[in-house]
Amino acid sequence: MKLLILVVIAVLVIFLMLKYYPPLGGKSSAESQRRIQASPQFIDGKFRNQIPTPMDYSLKDTADALIKTIKGTPNSRPKGSVPVDSFDLKAFKENKEDQVIWFGHSTLLLKVNGVKLLIDPVFSDYASPVPFFGPKRYSDKLPAEIQDLPEIDAVIISHDHYDHLDYGSIRKLKGKVKQFIVPLGVAGHLTKWGVEPEFIKELDWWDKESVEGLTLISTPARHFSGRGGSSGMSTLWSSWVIVSDQMKIYYSGDSGYGPHFKEIGDKYGPFDLTLIETGQYDEKWANIHLTPEESVQVNLDVQGKLMIPIHWGAFTLALHSWTDPIERAKLAAEQLNAALATPRIGETVTIGATKYPYGNWWE
């Protein structure tokens, strides 16, 4: 009887969390639902990729992953805190050149033609819906906290996974961001967290939005979405193209390899800078995440002049060593004669410059 009571209580707690716990996000508005239903990507009640993307993960696969996680991966985290450069707000404002600053994982601060953009802002210590539980950030500090950032012209979100869309960060950012540009369906999370609907623009693939003279284009990716419960595939995932009068930038978001990269390159390339997912991969996730070698090939597919590897250096979300992504990406870039930059977290990279950071700071 006591066991039954405990089971009932556990089920009730899970139900209440899924229904009311804010970090899990919210539902789309009626207008958003209308656009979702009309999207060519929304088929039989779910968003779909351009090509078949099986994500079959058997009970054996789950057990194997759990055993490997318990055993641990050598060098899965840095032995100490990773080096982080401090953000210089005065220099960021006064420097007229286009620039990008990597905050670790996929969080990026850009200034393009004077327009300030923040991509996939995750400033929390954990990539998780529950504080103090889940993947913990490597570094003890960030280049800057949210209160130290300038006013942001636009926040760009690639998809709604916890390592790209963070409840705590959005709550802190919403007072200093002019516009949130997100894939279809993601607005429901933001409005749940207090962002006013008039400050959010939802885009389908190939839709465009103008921000202070820049053009932002939502482009395809090969991935999936969901924050738990029954929310899987109810919001879209995107990569992004950023275009100014003199500069083109491509951000991959999370994606498995596919023909969409060449399609994007043919339509919008060449790109002065590409920001490509390079870490958190596994052979069983080959359809939804890039290996380092694939990420360098993606840079070539989209016609990138310079690539910065991202989606690494902050959290352990896979069973490879924490330096494996950048070591393999550097080797692949040398073999394919591709230009690769390896900035420290917080280091400013001038877009379009002839020199760029290439040191092995992780060693």
Automatic annotation (TrEMBL):
InterPro entries: Metallo-B-lactamas, NAPE-PLD, RibonucZ/Hydroxyglut_hydro. It catalyses: 3',5'-cyclic CMP + H2O = CMP + H(+); 3',5'-cyclic UMP + H2O = UMP + H(+). Coiled coil: none annotated. Residues 117-312 form the Metallo-beta-lactamase domain. Gene3D superfamilies: Ribonuclease Z/Hydroxyacylglutathione hydrolase-like. Counteracts the endogenous Pycsar antiviral defense system. Phosphodiesterase that enables metal-dependent hydrolysis of host cyclic nucleotide Pycsar defense signals such as cCMP and cUMP. This is MBL fold metallo-hydrolase. It comes from Paenibacillus radicis (ex Xue et al. 2023).
